[in-house]
Amino acid sequence: MAELSYRDAVAAGLAQEMERDDTVYMIGEDIAAAGGVFKATPGLLERFGPRRVRDTPISEEAITGAAMGAAMTGLRPVAELMFSDFIATCWDIIANQIAKTRYMTDGQITLPLVIRTANGAGSRFGAQHSQSLENWAMAVPGLKVVAPSTPADVKGLLAASIRDDDPVMFFEHKSLYATKGDVPDGEHVEELGVAKVRREGSDATIVALAAMVPRALDAAERLAADGIDCTVIDVRSLVPLDTQTILGSVRSTSRLYTVEENPRLCGWGAEIASIVAEELFYDLDGPIVRITTPHVPLPAADALEDATLPTVERIYQTIKNSD
Amino acid sequence: MTGAGETTEVPAQSEVTGYAPAELDRTTRLELYRKMVALRLFEQRAYDLFLQNLVKGTSHLSLGQEAVAAGFGQAMRADDYTFCTYRGHAHTLVRGASMTGVMAELLGRSNGILGGKGGSMHLTSVEHYAMGSYAIVGAHMPIAAGAAWSAMERDSGQVAVCFFGDGTTNIGAFHEALNLAVVWKLPVVFVCENNLYMEYTPIGSVTAVPSPAADRASAYGLERVLVDGNDPDELYGCASRFLERARDGDGPALIEALTYRKGGHSRADPGKYRPDDEVERWMARDPIDLYRGRLLELGFGAPELDEIDSGELAAVDRATQEAKDGQAPDVGAIETQVFADGGNAWRN
Q: Do residues A170 and A192 lie in contact, with contact meaning Cβ atoms separated by under 8 Å?
């Protein structure tokens, strides 16, 4: 095991796959010479050369469109969109073209590509550089959607996404880039569609994603001190979604909370709540509760942004007071 | 104010000619003629089947514009990529896609080229390197650039050809794709079929320059290329020149081919917004009539051309029958091919 930061794990995952497969190419704004605005791709230009690690103009439709055209003709491109908010500028390519082309062509076209993007709040960037947009991607048939919470998962899930034959939206969380964790030595590949139980407890199940995972774990520690023992599940992959791990846990705890950074309406937790309500209604001891950002664009000021996102305190109070 | 491009006059011949090869062999000429006739007869049949309500939804025909697909189709290498628009029957067929498969797709049958899942606007035949028909204006331009990028990196010698309409020249993806293609020196040839109208509105009335594609070329450091879109010899020559250039590593081209629809934008459009004299002028420039006249002048025999006509008509008849004989797709197909495992499983 080696300790790596979340951002270093991005580069490690990319390097591992580029070393292994010479059809893996990277494109994006400022990714090559500058090493990425979040410094997630330094050293790759030097190691793999300017053809495989290539800077683009600020042209998100060209970036995603080029990735699509290359993916259907023999490359495995990894395209970076600097901020996930920018997917709005190329949503046609992602949602209309990339997501639907396999279906519309009855399987003639395969698109093994990854769109990496920096997602989420906590950097005081305001409403257009802070959103959690994984639920946009989740709503479109044909896309896989991954959002890791740890450096090990960044590397392992990024590798799995690159090897996957379907288009994957890979959401890296901006506020996690500096966090550190152990990453297995040697080749590390995880499996898409497998949730991870981060903490075991018998009283309630908390499901969380990306930056909400460490918050859910902190809240669970405080709840444990109060005698409420929670399971915390890191969903990791929204499509495919590991419902069995979640259902299995709720079957034993009989309580479900979701912790979502997205604004309230149609967040990913709503789908999980719906599945659990449909399939485990009579196992539940209380209502399913979603802990989310309120339905607002994100404010910039630190005091406002901090109070907008689900905090450890809010998670703790919500669960404690509903028990 | 008169929009700079409001005129729909045919430009001076000297401005749109000069690409036709000095000598063209007999086989190539007959093949250009055959391709145009096949596309014409297919599209006419598609229109007839609309009127019989056998084709549902919408459809955008290439009637009157066949020379562009024929000229480029003839010049392309078998493994060059085609990207086209929702007006893509001709560009897909010309690569060798099965007439029956395309007709059955229009009819929504299981023997359709896309199993009934794509329909008229998404025709694709990967085995013929026809990499899709794209129904959102401009989207396929960066995608074609991406295929060219891949060809360049794989050193395959392939060129991507991207067909689009005049309306595409005012959307962002057009400009993003051209810039990227030039900066990366990609082997891609962008072909604007300027039929003078976007949908109902003349392109000239909403565009800053008279020639919507050709006049933008200089912004990307590209040669201004305006070609007669109704003359297959000119198009074949033009295509050959810029395909070769791209294949040699000299980068992309942007070509504007001037042409005209015989009918409306889509099935629902009778095209009444076009002035009578303009329609008349262009109908006198029907690419097939003109080419047939040229071939006769060059000494080709009428019987030999008639034989091509009847052969293609028989092929369209056969395709029509085979398409009609096709079954409706099994509803089990609905949940297939969302993902690469062939299914649509999003959860366990």
A: no
pLDDT tens figures, A110-139: 999 999 999 999 999 999 999 999 999 999
Nearest residue on chain A to B137, judged by CA atoms? A92
Chain B interface includes A261 (CB < 8 A): no
Q: How far apart are CA A97 and CA A63, in angstroms?
A: 13
Of A112, A142, A243, the CB nearest to B347: A243
A17 and A161 share one domain: yes
Backbone φ/ψ region at A116: left (φ over 0), alpha (ψ -120 to 50), beta: beta
Asked if A197 and A245 touch (Cβ cutoff 8 Å), the reply is yes
Active site residues of A: 129
CB-count exposure of residue B341 (10 Å: 0-12, 13-18, 19+): exposed
**Among B134, B126, B133, B63, which residue's Cα sits nearest to residue B96?**
B126
In a shared domain, residues A234 and A152: no
Domain with A218, as residue range(s), is 196-322
B195-225 pLDDT, tens digit per residue, is 999 999 999 999 999 999 999 999 999 999 9
One domain, residues A313 and A258:
yes
If asked whether residues A161 and A242 sit together in one domain, one would say: no
Q: Do B136 and A97 touch (CB under 8 A)?
A: yes
Per DSSP, what are the bridge partners of residue A257? A206, A289
Domain ranges of chain B: 13-323
Contact residues on chain A for B141, CB-CB shorter than 8 A? 65
Q: Contact A103/B125, CB-based, under 8 Å? A: no
* Short-list A119, A183, A189, A123, CA closest to A150: A183
Answer yes or no: is the ipTM higher than 0.85.
yes
Task: Write out the two tokens for B333.
Answer: 């197909």
Going by CATH, does the domain composed of B13-323 fall within 3.40.50.970?
Answer: yes
Residue A38 in any domain: the answer is: yes
Are B226 and B209 contacting, i.e. CB atoms less than 8 angstroms apart? no
Distance CA A82, CA A95 (A): 18
**Do A206 and A115 belong to one domain?**
no
* Closest residue in chain B to residue A58, using alpha carbons only: B176
Which residues are CB-contacts of B304 (< 8 A; sequence separation ≥ 6)? Answer: B30
Q: A301 and A265 in one domain?
A: yes
Give pLDDT tens digits for B220-270.
999 999 999 999 999 999 999 999 999 999 999 999 999 999 888 887 788
Rounded to the nearest 10 degrees, the angle between the axes of helix B26-51 and helix B302-325 is 40
CATH number at residue A205: 3.40.50.920
**Smallest Cβ distance to A74: which of B83, B142, B150?**
B150
Instruction: Examine residue A191 and state whether it is found in any structural domain, yes or no.
Output: no
Of B139, B154, B348, the CB nearest to A96: B139
CA–CA distance, A98 with A109 (Å, rounded to integer) = 10
Beta strands in chain A (DSSP E): 2-5, 24-28, 53-55, 76-83, 114-119, 144-146, 168-173, 180-183, 196-199, 204-208, 230-234, 237-239, 256-263, 289-293
